[in-house]
Write a structure and sequence with these properties.
binds calcium ion, elongated, Type 1 dockerin domain, mainly alpha, single chain
Length: 63
């Protein structure tokens, strides 16, 4: 089982595509217009390595 929010592109799998999507907004923090809370998995108002680590930890998991 995976947490649906971590499957960014909603294809039922956590893989490199999800990591890539989060990587695109890497370093973006609130209130930047590029900030997207969907990618801020630990809700610290910043999209950084910690958020990527959450996805990476579940890499390869599928529904
Ligand atoms: Ca996915
Ligand atoms: Ca974060």
């Amino acid at each position: 089982m995976i947490v649906p929010e971590w499957d960014v592109n909603i294809d039922g799998r956590i893989d490199i595509k999800d990591v890539a999507q989060v990587s695109k907004v890497f370093g973006v923090s609130h209130p930047s217009p590029r900030y997207n809370s969907d990618f801020d998995f630990n809700s610290d108002s910043r999209i950084d390595i910690k958020d990527i680590a959450i996805v990476a930890k579940n890499f390869g998991e599928s529904h």
